Amino acid sequence: MSNQPQPQPGIAEITPYVPGRAGALGPGPVVMLASNESPLGASPAAISAFTEAAERLAEYPDGSATALRHAIGEVHDLDPDRIVVGAGSDELLHLIAQAYIGVGDEAVVSQYGFLVYPIVTRGAGGVPVVAEETDFRTDVDAVLKATGERTRVVFIANPNNPTGSYLGETQLIRLHAGLPSGVLLVVDSAYAEYVTADDYEPGIGLVDRSENVVMVRTFSKIGLAGARVGWLYGPPSIVDAINRLRGPFNVGGPAQAAAEAAVRDTEFTRRLNTHNAKWREWLTANVEGNWLTVLPSQGNFVLVRFSDAAGRTAADANKALRESGLVVRQMSAYGLTDALRISIGTEEAMRKVATVLNGMGRDG
Ligand SMILES: *Cc1c(COP(=O)(O)O)cnc(C)c1O
How far apart, in whole angstroms, are the C-alpha atoms of residue 289 and residue 296? Predict the structure, then answer.
């Protein structure tokens, strides 16, 4: 041991998160399809609100985000007292882990679940326990089997990033019903606004009927990734714990103002959903061939699996896309070396992606 300050043991176990913008880009125009940002930018109302709020930059923001929580409550028909706002849902996930996971405790994550869950678990001194997936879907039985004596939290992204798969309401209810009452179920519905499946429920009903479920949401995927605003809806006891722990001014004033305008701009959110559904379906239909598979997705992205034949691997596709200025997400951090995750973007971007992938051949 050196004499230098040492981080807690769990910190060294963290595999650093690699964001979608990493890596050198060539000259020429670049289209980012690597971080599941909004395909239509931000709501114009949100941009105006952010700009106006800049006039008050010298002032501390409202530490309890009252106006924003009330706006979310009105739009989603929720009690604002049961909402907490965070600097992105990432902050809320960290706070949940700190509040509910101790040294040596376990958190159950799905095999291809969002990679922030193991990070926040390790950060709290806990150990992530992986439940194997079946056909790239969260396997409810595997999750329940992985849940044991030391389990404190189960993290489920619904729909999941990067696979795009989701659990219908019945499956989510079944998962919750199988958990001991002392285990906290975190339903991360980061892509709820993009879902088109009829049997989907973002977790609100489950929160309302239980004491051990919290739903986490974000503004990042609907146009405000740069503002860093997320929120959670949970039972009073969990809301109280998170409010005690969080920084008193954790979300900036312009970010709160932008999010309040964005949540009220339901017309813009609807346009996002419609655009995304159309081009998600179009891209899937136009690139799928018998050597390339597009997994069914409920998010604003698709996971594409490639071949292991020379010239048709995920690395080959990534190179071809980059050469055309299209930046997508490599998936080796998830153990999916044969896959790329492609965000749904503008019509122009989607047509370019299809042209590049089809240029690699459609059959064989
Ligand atoms: C993008 C994402 C988030 C995090 O979003 P923030 O930008 O921190 O609000 C959370 N969960 C999942 C599954 C995501 O894909």
Answer: 14
* Domains of the chain from N-terminus onward: 18-41+267-360 (3.90.1150.10), 44-264 (3.40.640.10)
**Residue 70: is it exposed, middle or buried by C-beta count within 10 angstroms (0-12/13-18/19+)?**
middle
134 in helix, strand or coil?
strand
Rounded distance from Cα 220 to ligand 1 centre (Å): 7
Residue 168: left (phi > 0), alpha (psi -120 to 50), or beta?
Answer: beta
Per-residue model confidence as pLDDT tens digits over 243-294 = 999 999 999 999 999 999 999 999 999 999 999 999 999 999 999 887 899 9
User: Is any ligand 1 atom within 6 A of the Cβ of residue 157?
Assistant: yes
DSSP conformational letter for 61 = P
Q: Which atom of ligand 1 is nearest to the CA of 162?
A: 15
Task: Output the CA angle 211-213-215, nearest 5 degrees.
Answer: 135
d(CA 187, CA 50): 29
121 lines ligand 1 (CB under 6 A): no
Residue 230 CA, closest ligand 1 atom number: 9
Enumerate the H helices of 101-235 as residue ranges. 116-123, 140-146, 169-177, 204-209
Burial of 268 (C-beta count, 10 Å sphere; 0-12/13-18/19+): buried
CA angle 270, 45, 224 (to 5 degrees): 70
Cβ(127)–Cβ(121) under 8 Å? yes
Q: Rounded to whole angstroms, how far apart are CA atoms 117 and 257?
A: 28
3 state SS of 48: helix
Q: Please give the model's pTM, rounded to 2 decimal places.
A: 0.96
What are the tens digits of pLDDT across the range 89-99? 999 999 999 99
From the number of C-beta atoms within 10 Å of its C-beta (0-12, 13-18, 19+), residue 201 rates as buried
Q: Which residues of 328-348 are buried (b: 16+ CB within 10 A; e: fewer)?
A: bbbbeebebeebbbbbbbeee
164 CB within 6 A, ligand 1? no
What are the tokens at 257? 């103002």
